[in-house]
Automatic annotation (TrEMBL):
<dbReference type="InterPro" id="IPR022742">
    <property type="entry name" value="Hydrolase_4"/>
</dbReference>
<protein>
    <recommendedName>
        <fullName>Serine aminopeptidase S33 domain-containing protein</fullName>
    </recommendedName>
</protein>
<dbReference type="GO" id="GO:0016787">
    <property type="term" value="F:hydrolase activity"/>
</dbReference>
<dbReference type="Pfam" id="PF12146">
    <property type="entry name" value="Hydrolase_4"/>
</dbReference>
<feature type="domain" description="Serine aminopeptidase S33">
    <location>
        <begin position="36"/>
        <end position="133"/>
    </location>
</feature>
<dbReference type="InterPro" id="IPR029058">
    <property type="entry name" value="AB_hydrolase_fold"/>
</dbReference>
Length: 221
């Protein structure tokens, strides 16, 4: 997984990028938890997501947002971090102009940033949100949400309480053409200490099925 440095809006950003051997492979961008609470691209769940997409044949990148690790700049409360995510996406798309799909996967604060990016980039074809902080941030911007995705919650998560996430899922599922695959692990808290394998299995299952449906829809056109 080669280290990469790419231009961000507030200085250079540090990432790890895997380039698929498959021609026109789909892309995945992985976003880490809150920088002020120790979130980096080396977070255990973030790394697990990265490896899952790699094993599915994607070209995939995880990166440190501004002020984290060797990335330049300072934390910007989420606004600048959305611009960082867009810059990471730009970099991957420049290298992979003929990618067959584009997924974003975020954990905790990274889920909030990822869903903001989803609303700005219509080329995104799928998303993964793990423990989105729905009780702390307003996700009302997802109106309308452009596509369905996978949302995961922990039943014992005090930082991203399951009832708030469940309410968000219910709201998204009322939107036309949107179906959220919602999975709850009752014994999991915010760090998912014993559920990393379950998360990777869920992601692989959801992405495989979603991409199969997308290919079937394209074939029918």
């Amino acid at each position: 997984m080669p280290e990469v440095m790419f231009a961000g809006p507030d200085g250079r950003l540090e990432g790890r990028y895997h380039h698929s051997n498959e021609p026109n492979a789909p892309l995945a961008l992985v976003l880490h938890p809150h920088p002020l609470h120790g979130g980096t691209m080396n977070n255990r769940i973030t790394y697990a997501l990265y490896r899952t997409f790699e094993n599915m044949g994607f070209s995939v990148m995880r990166y440190n947002s501004r002020g984290v690790g060797r990335s330049q700049g300072r934390f910007d409360g989420g606004i600048g971090e959305i611009s960082d995510a867009a810059a990471a996406l730009d970099w991957m798309q420049m290298i992979n102009p003929n990618a067959s799909g584009l997924w974003i996967a975020g954990y905790s604060f990274g889920a909030f940033v990822g869903m903001q990016l989803l609303m700005r980039r219509p080329e995104i074809t799928g998303w993964i949100s793990i423990a989105p902080p729905a009780a702390h941030y307003d996700f009302g911007f997802l109106a309308p949400c452009p596509c369905g995705g996978l949302m995961i919650a922990g039943g014992k998560d005090d930082m991203a309480p399951e009832p708030a996430i469940h309410k968000l899922v219910d709201k998204l599922n009322t939107q036309k053409g949107v179906a959220v695959d919602y999975r709850v692990y009752p014994e999991a808290d915010h760090i998912f200490a014993k559920q990393a394998d379950k998360i990777t299995a869920a992601v692989e299952d959801h992405v495989t099925r979603a991409m199969r449906q997308q290919h079937m829809a394209l074939a029918a056109d």
